[in-house]
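User: Here's a structure from my thesis project, written as structure tokens. My advisor, Dr. K., wants to see whether a designed sequence matches the one we expressed. Can you design one independently, without my sequence as a hint?
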């Protein structure tokens, strides 16, 4: 095929997406990697060329905040699909550029305003009519969570349930990077996400909690019990919309006590702030300054050990009888690094992005408008997960231990 893809973003996830696309040149014929820092793109392109040979990935300098720059690059390269793995604040400018140029769009995380720690799909869902009229597709949230967790739900509904009633998404990072404190993806986004108020779906409405107020010890496969905290995660918003029989939907994530202690200190001294402060005549956003001094997520992989474990635990009914179902993936940080030079959190986000892009380019997922991944047939995606490095496992009619 002569498909062309433009990947925007050269962090850890962008690196993985580029690596995985380069492994399938029969699908991804031409690849361009673009970022504000072109030398990062060049380094990734050279590493991939050394690993696989063949045609070298093209690179470009791009400020994705500026719609006109993205439009110009799209018109020059003429991709069939834009894969956005830049910052969530940049989702809308990139969607605008795709709309203007008539090119399909996909991302791994929903939009979040730079000036407010709030992420929800409403801003992107608002593009539905415009994308339909343009005759193009926007695929939202095709990482792991959101992404694979949503496909897991669609797969469960298709094959195991007549009605799903309770959903718990459980996300453990049981790895160690050897740093006193670091975030596994962009600190600016990570810290904003985990310090906001919690929220879950119960009986047709959202219930809010204080940050980290609700926790439980969850037993993860091959890992064991880990303290897990209820937080809000974006896929809950689309899943309760697309699977209306859900009476309860929650998201749990593990944090070590050391991580939470650092987080509390960061908040208490004002370093998690997103409002600019004036320092020696210069406006500085504390969280952006903190990002600059913390270890870079894409550089954590070399000494990372352990696993991630992410999955869905679901209760419902099938043929009038109660049913439970657990589907999950465990990913080795070490294996991820040996393949792509980055850690497991980036790997588990980047691999599904490549698979989602493949689904679009091969016509297995298609349509006009704005879609979340659970709206498409999960089967071809699930098949590719195992083939592309994220094998999954399932158990039926077991004690989910989530009451």
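Assistant: Designed independently from the structure alone:
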């Amino acid at each position: 095929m002569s498909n062309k893809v433009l990947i925007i973003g050269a962090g850890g996830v962008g690196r993985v997406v580029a690596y995985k696309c380069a492994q399938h040149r029969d699908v991804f014929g031409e690849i361009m990697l673009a970022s504000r820092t072109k030398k990062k793109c060049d380094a990734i392109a050279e590493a991939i060329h050394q690993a696989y040979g063949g045609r070298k990935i093209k690179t470009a300098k791009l400020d994705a905040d500026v719609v006109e720059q993205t439009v110009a690059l799209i018109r020059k390269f003429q991709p069939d699909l834009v894969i956005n793995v830049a910052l969530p604040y940049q989702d809308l400018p990139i969607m605008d550029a795709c709309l203007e140029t008539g090119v399909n769009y996909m991302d791994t995380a929903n939009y979040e305003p730079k000036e407010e720690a709030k992420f929800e799909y409403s801003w992107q869902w608002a593009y539905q009519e415009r994308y339909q009229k343009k005759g193009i597709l926007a695929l939202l949230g095709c990482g792991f969570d959101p992404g694979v967790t949503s496909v897991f739900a669609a797969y469960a509904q298709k094959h195991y349930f007549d009605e799903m009633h309770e959903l718990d998404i459980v996300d453990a990072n049981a790895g160690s990077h050897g740093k006193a404190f670091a975030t596994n993806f962009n600190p600016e986004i990570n810290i904003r996400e985990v310090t906001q108020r919690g929220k879950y779906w119960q009986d047709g409405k959202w219930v809010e909690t204080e940050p980290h107020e609700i926790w439980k010890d969850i037993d993860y496969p091959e890992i064991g019990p880990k303290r897990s905290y209820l937080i809000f995660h974006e896929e809950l918003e689309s899943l309760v919309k697309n699977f209306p029989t859900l009476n309860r939907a929650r998201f749990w994530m593990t944090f070590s006590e050391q991580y939470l202690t650092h987080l509390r200190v960061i908040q208490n001294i004002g370093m998690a702030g997103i409002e600019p402060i004036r320092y020696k005549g210069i406006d500085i956003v504390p969280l952006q300054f903190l990002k600059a001094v913390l270890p870079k997520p894409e550089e954590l992989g070399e000494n990372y050990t352990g696993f991630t474990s992410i999955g869905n635990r679901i209760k419902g009914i099938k043929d009038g009888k109660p049913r439970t179902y657990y589907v999950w993936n465990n990913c080795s940080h070490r294996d991820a690094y040996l393949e792509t030079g980055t850690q497991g959190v980036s790997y588990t986000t980047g691999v599904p992005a490549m698979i989602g892009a493949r689904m679009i380019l091969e016509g297995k997922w298609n349509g006009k408008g704005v879609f979340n991944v659970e709206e498409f047939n999960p089967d071809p995606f699930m098949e590719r997960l195992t083939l592309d490095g994220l094998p999954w496992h399932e158990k039926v009619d077991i004690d989910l231990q989530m009451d």
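When you compare it with your expressed construct, this may help: The first helix runs from residue 12 to 22.
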